[in-house]
Amino acid sequence: MSENSPDSSGKIGYVVLGATKAEGGTRTVSFRLGGESDLPFIGMNTGQGSIPLVAFEICDDPEYWSPIVTSYTGDLSNDAREWAGVAEKQYGADIIRLYLTSTKRRGFDNFSSITTVMEEVLSGTGLPLVVEGSNEPAIDSDVFQRCGEAGEGERLLLGTAEAGRYRSVAAAALAYHHSVLAQSPIDINLAKQLNILLREIGVKADHIMIDPYTGTLGYGFEYSYSVMERIRSAALKGDTDLAMPMITSATDSLSVKEVREADPAALEDIAVEWEFYAALSSAIAGSSVVCVRHPKTVPLLKSAFRELWAGKMPGEA
Amino acid sequence: MALKALDIYKLLPKKNCKECGDPTCLTFAMKLASGKGDLEKCPYLDPGAKNILGASTRPPIQLVKIGVGERRFAVGEEFVLFRHEKTFYHPPGIMFEVSDLWSGKEIEAVTRRVGSEHYVRVGTDLTFSGVAIRNESGDPDQFAEAVGVVEATGTHVPEVLMAHDPAVQEAGLKKCGNFRPLIYSATIDSYKPLCALAKKFGSPLVVSAKDLLSLGELTKLCNAEGINDLLLDLSFPSLREYIPAATEVRQKSILRSAPELGYPVFLDTTRYPMQDAALILGIDKYAGVIVTRALSPASSVAALTLRQNIYTDPQKPIQMNPGIYPVGNPGKESPVLLTVNFSLTYFTVQGYLESSRVPCYMFIVDTEGLSVLTAVAAGKLNEALVRDSIKKFDLEHLVSHRRLIIPGYASPLSGKIEEETGWKVLVGPRDAAEIGDYLAKEWKS
Amino acid sequence: MPTVTFLPSYRKITVDAGSTVLDAIQRAQIQMNVVCGGQGKCGKCVVFIKNGSVEFDREKFGRFFTAEELAQGACLACEAVIGDDLHVLIPESSLIQQQKILMESLGIETVFSPSVWKYYVELSPPTLEDPSPDLTRLVWGIQKQGGPLAEKMYAPLDVLRWMPRVLRDSGWRVTATLALVPGGFRIIDLEKGDTRSEIYGVAIDLGTTTVVAYIRSLADGRIVGIASNYNRQISCGEDILSRVNYARKNGLPKLQALAAESINLAITTAANGAGIDREDIYEVVVAGNTIMTHILLGIDPAYMIEEPYVPVVRRYLTTAAPRLGIEVAQDASVFIFPAVSDFIGGDIIADVLASGMGEKDEISLLVDIGTNFEVVLGNREWMFSCAGAAGPALEGGEVLFGMRANPGAIERISIDPITLEPEFQTINSVKPVGICGSGLIDLLADLLRACVVDRTGRINTGIIHPRVRQGDHFPEYVIAWKTETGNNKDIVITENDIKNLIMSKASILAACITLMKQAGITRNELSAIYFSGAFGNYINKENAIMIGLIPEVAIDHIRNIGNGAVEGANMALINRKKRKTLDEIAKNIAYIELNAEPSFMDEYTGSSFLPHTDLALFPRVEKMLDECRLKKIPVGVP
Asked: What per-residue confidence (pLDDT) applies to C635?
């Protein structure tokens, strides 16, 4: 990665997630992310930037979900609508990130079910939504089309765009005015490359969030941490192709050996701490949205951010 | 700001005299630039140049040693704001708090825990660093007694003596002053007697003040008293002040714009409602010594792992030992997947292989910790290495087939590997996440 | 006189009746494969008589053919005698498949200052009054002719042994050959009469694949003969590593002998072509990579491919030709280029010499591309170098229809950005059978311009066009339909081919940028980029920059030095003063081990993009691409 213009006049660009009724959607709240012109948790008093947000991750087919979570939630995880509501009202999440894990089933072709799930989750919560589409390039186009359409007007964050498959998700985002979650594998160059590719097919910078990919603690977290710091620094130095807010999720937190093989009595604590340490450090490295899967991690992170944040709160003028 | 090899070269005598042990001035300059050379080895350097070069290679943050013996540690001597710029050298000491109000048993239990608790991760033993003994009784004798309990455990772990009253400090130091405990803490009102104690016992000293400006003033005063082994207490009333302050200290010291702030940072997390959050901040952002209440088992392993992660040399990837690693219970017909000994690659691939539930062998070859992409580009991963590794690890006797799955990014080598080894090469996916699908579709034993 | 028409080209030539078909073929300058030299022994010069008839002994040579072939008029060109007009079909298999090997000079002037000379002297015979010894007479005679001081000259024993005979048989009119050696001048030959014009030297590029020899007159410096052939060591392994492995298994003597044999073959071919006697070649200059040099010297190269990668010698060496088995004048010496490291060998020092970059104040970058690549950055004061594996993609390997620069290879191609129709040119203008390195670079650049591929090289399968399609394994672009090709297949480039190509180019660009960063040099400070190696001569410079093979500089700052190794060897041959600078160059070049360079991986991923992730490094390309995209949008969105 080479130096960009030496001046440090750069600023993280804005991305808006969610749309309230006044904004043409049905969300009860929307967030404007970005705007920072300094390192994370510095210069908060200038009125710029926003407190990091916590997204809670749910799915529409819990078979593909960590048993640590499903044993905690019980039947709740079988009902995405309900689950989304509980995440908002009980866990206190800021954002819901929905994984359409049902599309992982071999030979999945029930595309109308996607529309149904989308409608359910949208009705179950008033929070802005991040939607993770398919895992199979062959059905990308259909899946993203359905997600995009069902969420029209809601300013979703649609994921995941990768260097090898970004056209379908970008097409759906462009058609229905959503933003794109651009994920690259722990490399500042690859993150920038993907943003350039998206820009060149018409996705505007204020509709992109960077997911630099987060390996959890002990499993490459240090690489992710440094890539986030590098992305933030490059953006502050004026590299506009990297000046988007970041979203991170150490999704493997619940599946690594330390957590999976922990003493059953301590398992939940370890799972929560593992998520908490990785997520808070990600925010310290520059992530605007951190995503977690264990319900108990959400309030911990929310209090930590409140304790660290000295700037404006969402909704404040 | 680090100088480039060429900038350094221009300041060297360009005699190519070889007296420094390098063949030319240019190669010597390259060593200096990478921090591996010793400026003193050049006998012909003129004083002006020496000044410039010396200033750019002298550590901008004081190195402070705490404790003696096996468990002692050092903090400070850092050069960069971000670990990716070079590396962070000295991980913070995490000290468990005990109080002189506690029973001897309680104090002993925490001390013994610090002495023996350890976790092994990627071949490294991770431990907590020491014990912070807090004077809450206000009584010198009680404090001395608590220190005595810690000493009596024979764990020899480094100590922080947390007592503001110089008389109490002295009582404690009398018990353990020979072991370089960290003295906490000197304020504008107490610095003189505490400096005298620090001097007497050869101990490092924490200084506390309301803001960075006052801290800087205070370090200058301590310097005047002959004390240079200092730490800056950044445990301000609100945790939100920590990151801005610690960042400013690091920034100003590495730019050498405020030498009075060129000291490691001290953080007492026990004063904040969210101790774990404060601990994370300290680990991520520049702390040298962190005091916490004894951590829960869950926080313990997370904290030590985070500290190990942040203080890993980003320019020197952690390596796995080359060899053959079984996943599940593989047999003679199980697939063999070749990959490199970059630890991140190993862990990532291993994770996906485990979840694929296909028993197999991971065949790890020595690319000196380079990732697949780089190892191929730099020629480190090549057919000769594969051939030699097959022989070395006796792969031919381990499995009855002769099929080798190589990473997608190594596809350019497939032909050469086949030629060199006689094994049939199958090119796997580029992305480890696809490995399960790949095995399900492509591997028929 | 009968007219012979050759098929498939329809070239016509008139010959005397009674000539053989081979005579006619050679007069028509068609490169026929004649292994036995036209004695009817090898059976390689097969032709088919399509019209008319020839005198040909079918009984005697029938063993070379099947009955079916004989029925189609097969015969051996060397044994077929022409009586009347003929149509002769020459099958492709009978033609020599010649690789394009670069032998062009630099257009740089250098001082003519050889290190061997001939002096013709007419001496007075000894008498009773003047009884001074033969050698004294000779050296004084040479000094009087303007040669070196008499006391600086000496003669080795074998020359002394012939001396009395040669002097007396020639009537005291002889030509002496003098070579500059440490401490004086050695008389290395003595011939009867005036042979001053017969003094030659040879410059050799000893490559892993190819050996090139230039014979020059050392009387005036001009080139008199050039030849090249494959390195015969290929029989012991294609690439350098397999040669070292072969050497390890007690194969060093054989490899050494093959190296000498390959050099001898090139020298003999060049000498024969020029009509000169090998015995008149008095000096040999060899530039080769470090391993080739070691092998030629018979030094074990094994320790160079193991850590810590140490070569045995690094300085230049001079030795006697017979000791290496090089067959030239008995007392000729061989000068061997020095090396920097295992990877930066004499060939690269020769590149640097040929480019002149080590003599300038301005900073230049030199890139030598083959299967491996080497990069040198610097000026007269300092130089950094590095080397790495480029992978074979740029030489046509690892690419489905990739090939070397042989006949039928597409060497230039352009694509209409609107219609996506290609227009190409093949080597020898025959039907295409594949695509070589220069064509691949053109192709990639134009696919990018036409927005058929994105900057990561992925083909936009959303484009609806017959040439853009999903292949068996990867998306692909059809370059030529099978009806237009020479192998009856659609010639395509696949997404995977492009990936391999990008990996190759990324290694090279990343190496360039790594050196530039190490030195703190920006692209604006580069006064020139030199391409060395056959490759450089054929590529389109603009396209090389478009895809980011090298840093962006003004086009007229890019120069090809051709085969820099042989050019450098030539320079050292005709200008001995250059040799002194070689050790200096070698010493001045600091070698940077890319493996040990933590930033290399970063630079590599940054460079794995077209042209580079940091678009600011390629401002001209960016402007061009912006214009291209303006024409294309909204093609990108399916």
From this structure: 41
pLDDT of residue C98: 43
Tell me how many residue pairs between chain A and chain C have CB atoms under 8 A apart.
Answer: 60
pLDDT digits (tens, 9 = 90+) for A123-140: 999 999 999 998 778 899
Q: Does C371 touch chain B (CB under 8 A)?
A: no
Residues of chain A with Cβ-Cβ distance to C458 below 8 Å are 163-164
pLDDT band at C35 (very low <50, low <70, confident <90, very high): low
HSE at residue C274, side-chain half, CA atoms within 13 A, is 27
Q: What is the pLDDT of residue C103?
A: 33
Give the chain A residue nearest C603 (alpha carbons): A1
Q: Taking Cα atoms as reference points, which of B199, B189, B185 lies closest to residue B235?
A: B185
Q: Domain ranges for chain A, please list them.
A: 15-308
Are C517 and A2 within 8 A, CB to CB? yes
Please give the residue of chain B at the shortest CA–CA distance from C371.
B379
- Domain final residue pick, B264, B282, B310: B310
CATH number of the structural domain spanning residue B246: 3.20.20.20
Q: Is residue B318, in this structure, part of any structural domain at all?
A: no
Q: What is the pLDDT of residues C149-179, one digit of tens each?
A: 888 999 999 899 999 999 999 999 999 999 9
Interface of C with B in 588-617 (CB under 8 A): 588, 590, 592, 594-595, 598, 600-601, 604-605
Place of tokens 């799915």: A59
How far is residue C397's CA from residue C385's CA, in Å, rounded to a whole number?
26
Whether B310 and A220 lie within 8 Å, measured CB to CB:
no
C399: nearest CA partner in chain B: B412
For A189, the closest of C454, C458, C613 (CB atoms) is C613
Strands C200-206, C210-217: pairing is: antiparallel
How far is B81 from chain C, CA to nearest CA, in Å? Answer: 18
C500 contact B CB<8A: yes
* Candidate CATH numbers 3.30.420.40, 3.40.50.170, 3.90.1170.40, 3.40.50.2300; the one for domain C348-389+503-608: 3.30.420.40
Considering only alpha carbons, which residue of chain A is nearest residue C610? A193
Contact B253, B261 (CB under 8 A): yes
Cα–Cα distance measured from residue C192 to residue C175, given in angstroms and rounded to the nearest whole number: 6
pLDDT tens by residue, B326-371: 888 899 999 999 999 887 788 778 878 877 788 999 999 998 878 8
Mutation choice for C interface testing from B8, B9, B26 by most C CBs within 10 A: B26
B10 and B109, same domain (yes or no):
no
- Cα–Cα distances in angstroms (integers) from residue B363 to residues A240, B348, B386, C66, C624, in the given order: 42, 14, 10, 53, 46
Domain boundaries, position B125: 64-310
CATH code: domain A15-308 is 3.20.20.20
C460 interaction partners in chain A (CB closer than 8 Å)? 167
Please give the angle made by the CA atoms of C549, C551 and C555, to the nearest 5 degrees: 95
Q: How high is the pLDDT of residue A186?
A: 85
CB nearest to B378's CB, from C382, C388, C398? C388
Q: What does each C-alpha distance from B169 to B176, B187, B201 come to in angstroms? A: 11, 14, 11
Q: Could you read off the pLDDT of A236-265 as tens digits, one per residue?
A: 999 999 999 999 998 888 888 788 888 888
Same domain, B30 and B73: no
Is residue B81 located within the same domain as residue B48? Answer: no
